[in-house]
Structures are given as C-alpha cells and as structure tokens.
Amino acid sequence: MEFRGSSLLSTDQLSLDAVQSIFHKAKQIKERWDSPQALRIAPGERAPVVAHMFFEASTRTKTSFMLATHRMGLRPLDVGIGTANSQIKGETEADTFLNIQAMGPDLFVVRHGGDGDLAGAIRESQIPVISAGEGIEAHPTQALLDAFTIQENLGSLQGQKILICGDIAHSRVARSNAELLVRMGAEVGLCGPKLFLPESLVGFRIFQDLKEGLAWSHVLMVLRVQHERHQLGSPSAFALDEYRKLYSIDEKHLRFFSAKGIILHPGPVNWGVELDHAVRGDVRVKIFEQVRNGVFVRAALLALILGIGEE
Ligand code: CP
C-alpha cells in the first residue's frame, strides 16, 4: 500500500507488509518519543492541518490522535460536534464533513456511528481520512494498536490463540481485530452468550464456557457490553447478573488462564461487568500499555500518510 495521501478506513486495505511498516514506524516513534526533534516536521515546512471530527464520543482514540498531532508539530483542528456546530440547526453529518472538506484540511480523523451518506462522502474524499471508528463495522487503528501490543509482548502473532470475550456482535473492535489477527497467523476464539455472538461464526472457535476458552488461549481480549448499540427490545434478553456470573473476568476465572498470557481491553471498561474490580492489578492486564501504544501507532499513521520524516 502506498501510504502517502491514502485513507485508512479498514484493516483489510492493509497488506501484512504494510502492517509491519506501520509497526516499524510506531516502534521508532516510541523509542524516540522523548527526543523533542525526532518526530517533528522539519523547521520551515508548512505544518499540515489535521481535522478531528468525532460524531460519537471518545476518550482514548481522540486524545491519542490529538496528542500525536501536537507532539509532531502538526496543526490540530477540533471540529466541535453536537451543540457547538450547525448540526443543531439540522445539518447532516455528511454535509458537515463536506463543508469542512471544502475548507481544505490536509487530513481527517473521523469517528461516526455508521451514517451511510457520511460513509459515502468519506469514501469519495480527495483528502485522506483515517477512520477513528465506524458504527459496528470497523475500528482499524484499535486493531492495529492491539496487534502491535500483542507482538511487543509475545514476539509474534503467528500461532497465538486469542480469545475475544464479551459483546462481540455489537463491536467494531472485534470485527477489525478478528480480520487482522487471523491474517497475521493467530487463531481466534469467540466467547460470550449467544445474544452477543456474530451471525457468521465461520473460521472461529466458539466457547460458551469461559473457563474452557481461558484454558485454550494466550491472549484474552475482553470487550465492553455496548448497551448503547443494543436494539430496543433486544436487551430484554440480556440479564446483567447472569452475564456477570458466567462471563465477568474475575480472579476465580483467571486461575484457568496462562500465567504468561496477556489481557487486553480496548476501553472504556465497565468495571464490575466484563472485568471484575479485583483483577485491575493483575500483572497480565495490559490496558494502559494498549492506550500508550495507541499514541505511537496513530502517530505512525499520521507520519506515513502525511509523508513526515521520510528521507
Ligand atoms: N477504544 C476506544 O475506541 O476508546 P474511545 O471510545 O475512548 O476512543
């Protein structure tokens, strides 16, 4: 893939070589993060403007992109969404995007809930767009930072047994991760109640019993129960207490998991639901490593797409 000037909307756009190029760049950036000149655009160069448009809430993704933008000497443009712009007067998401596009930023970072018109405008955009999450479809930068974290901790994705546990059906993180991890040579298992499993289960090992899934896996990827994405009516089938009893990762369950394994969660965590409070301090929990790696992986994408730091 030619990164320069390209959009990144899903992981399946990326060849395995392209993924390793991103990881190589992210590793370089991580090693030089405290060296102030290492990452920044050259003195005298025009600083590209990165427009951040988040039509859905975000803490980690938005802040890590903004932080990387600042540290690299780029110019962040935070397009306020909601009451702070003309969406309050009825302007659509697609029109909002097209109007900001007409102003000519150098790159967009966009999160949205899956609006079809906006997705179409993004696909046709002449200005590159990095997806910061699209509905339940895709979250490519989350999948990249997760794979980067696994590779850093375990050396390679090849042959790793990765259990994705929780509300998989409503998770863009699960979709992007499953696509990427399988291509990188991992075996992926899915664990959760039937209500939370995706329609197509081909290519995955399915575990209804959490203990069996934990005993099988080296990497545990826990997902948030996404109440906001459940159709009205469908959550009636979801019993929180029953879910906690069967699928909440607690100290008892973790006795079945490898002592050398790692535990990931994309955040935000519903502590006390998918992860018990007592496991917060478990050395296998790598949540803050994921968050920190998110800054480096996103900085790498900004650098590659904007051509910063090329010799
Ligand atoms: N993992 C993730 O996308 O977190 P945010 O919603 O806080 O960005």
Secondary-structure map:
Blueprint: H1 16-31, E1 49-54, H2 60-71, E2 75-79, H3 93-103, E3 107-112, H4 116-124, E4 129-134, H5 140-154, E5 161-165, H6 172-183, E6 187-191, E7 205-207, H7 210-216, E8 219-222, H8 240-247, H9 251-254, E9 262-264, H10 287-306
Parallel strand pairs: 1-2, 1-3, 3-4, 5-6, 5-8, 6-7, 8-9
Bound molecules: phosphoric acid mono(formamide)ester.
Short descriptors:
five-stranded parallel beta sheet; four-stranded parallel beta sheet; alpha/beta; 311 residues; binds phosphoric acid mono(formamide)ester; 9 strands
User: What share of residues are in beta strands?
Assistant: 5-15%
Give, in order, the helices and strands: HEHEHEHEHEHEEHEHHEH
Low-confidence stretches: none
Helical proportion? 25-40%
State the separation between the terminal residues, measured CA to CA: 18 Å
Query: How many beta-strand segments?
Result: 9
Structural class: alpha/beta
Instruction: Give me the number of helical elements.
Output: 10
Shape: globular
Give the mean pLDDT.
93
Task: Specify the biggest β-sheet.
Answer: 5 strands, parallel
Bound molecules: phosphoric acid mono(formamide)ester
Radius of gyration computed on alpha carbons:
20 Å
For the largest sheet, list the strands in their spatial order. 7-6-5-8-9
